[in-house]
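Chapter summary example.
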Amino acid sequence: MKTTNEQKKIEALERMRTLKLYPNIIKEFEKENVVNMSENGGFLYWLNDEQKEIVAEFEQEHNALVYHVIHDFTGFGELLTFFYVSDDDEEWEYDRADLKEGYACAYVKNLTDDMCSEFGSVCFRPQFGGLVRTA
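The structure predicted for these 135 residues follows.
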């Protein structure tokens, strides 16, 4: 079922609270549509212009709403992990249950090798108001 951006935003805000993200970034997302990024062990940063453009392209291509990003450097590339709300509201209940267990279906954009970008399950834990990928 096709959902509106407002419905996705309400869902995203609920997920952000479930993830125990820092309250100020939840407010920024709610009031100003600002997507924050976790890196360096969960510390929070704003996206730069290039990262904002990558998020916008993903959202448009997949009719999704990104509400948080994790930025990592790994042996196989520089990664942006997108936590997002899909257009399929029938999956939302399952997505919320997964978040409570410390994993999520996410999109991982490999900035070093785009051919390695993919959807998949990621594990994480909250830290310092943000998130840290654990797998």
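To summarize the output: The mean pLDDT is 96.
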